[in-house]
Design brief:
heterodimer, A: 110 residues, mainly beta, six-stranded mixed sheet, four-stranded antiparallel sheet, 0% helix, B: 117 residues
Chain lengths: 110, 117
């Protein structure tokens, strides 16, 4: 089984851009799609990116996803930060028999 | 509108058992795989188990394999999680989730399971 490692926390100012990384411990990041979920306090997670870089309808284009095979990692970028973006963000991928979540990153918009 | 409503959580002693249920509505239940995901207090998300739409295939995280059993009743639009030999580290909010291959598209609000003496 592999692990997905995220930074514990990141912070940035409103209007700026932040990038959250998600590094796969073994196996290629490109071999299985990566999803990103947003979880606000007291709420269930919602999908902000699926299949590496696809945005569900209703998610603003300020959210974007990418993968980098050289670092074996995926990234979630949020531009034009708003205070409402403050939340926990989780990456997620899978292999043949397991679904794996990253440990989560707390985004603070200050 | 997709609705997923979990029930069956509560306080149980270490070594005990509990069965969670998830009532689904707003979609063709039998057409979708379903998952259980848990979140310990103040911690991150952990995938627990998944089951195919027909119920013929099941999958488990190593941490629960041999102790938990996932099942579904498509005639009742209900998902289940039978949890045996519960441990303190199983304490978490357990949520059911509508799943398409390898990603979650809808989440329930969850039910709290507390394992403590």
């Amino acid at each position: 089984n592999f692990m997905l490692t995220q930074p514990h926390s990141v912070s940035e100012s409103p209007g700026k851009t932040v990038t959250i990384s998600c590094t796969r411990s073994s196996g290629s990041i490109a071999s299985n799609y990566v999803q990103w979920y947003q979880q606000r306090p007291g709420s269930s997670p919602t999908t902000v990116i699926y299949e590496d870089n696809q945005r569900p309808s209703g998610v603003p284009d300020r959210f974007s996803g990418s993968i980098d095979s050289s670092s074996n990692s995926a990234s979630l970028s949020i531009s034009g930060l708003k205070t409402e973006d403050e939340a926990d963000y989780y990456c997620q991928s899978y292999d043949s028999s397991n679904v794996v979540f990253g440990g989560g990153t707390k985004l603070t918009v200050l | 509108e997709v609705q997923l409503v979990e029930s069956g959580g509560g306080l149980v002693q270490p070594g005990g058992s509990l069965r969670l249920s998830c009532a689904a509505s707003g979609f063709t239940f039998s057409s979708y795989a379903m998952s259980w995901v848990r979140q310990a207090p103040g911690k991150g998300l952990e995938w627990v188990s998944a089951i195919s739409g027909s119920g013929g295939s099941t999958y488990y995280a190593d941490s629960v394999k041999g102790r938990f059993t996932v099942s579904r009743d498509n005639s009742k639009n209900t998902l289940y999680l039978q949890m045996n030999s519960l441990r303190a580290e199983d304490t978490a909010v357990y949520s059911c989730a509508k799943t398409i291959p390898n990603r979650i598209i809808n989440w329930g609000q969850g039910t709290l399971v507390t394992v403590s003496s």
